[in-house]
Amino acid sequence: MSEPREPRIVSTPGVCGGRPRLLGTRLTVHDILGALAAGDTIDELLVDFPDLTREDFSAVLRYAADLLDHQGVAAE
User: Which of 3, 6, 12, 14 could form a disulfide with 63, with the two C-beta atoms 3.0–4.6 Å apart?
Assistant: First the structure.
């Protein structure tokens, strides 16, 4: 099974432990999803990280959704 392909999301051995992150940053998909899950809004995160764009957040969400789909999450 291949990993979902999202051009803005990269994994580099030795950078952030190889975890998926936004290209050109050290912000991992996990960090961004965690901030959103904790209640931070995209608008708030754009203020905190002015180099990010709305498309970066969309890429993170697409990556996560695609990853879940590829893993075949089973219903309980």
Answer: 6
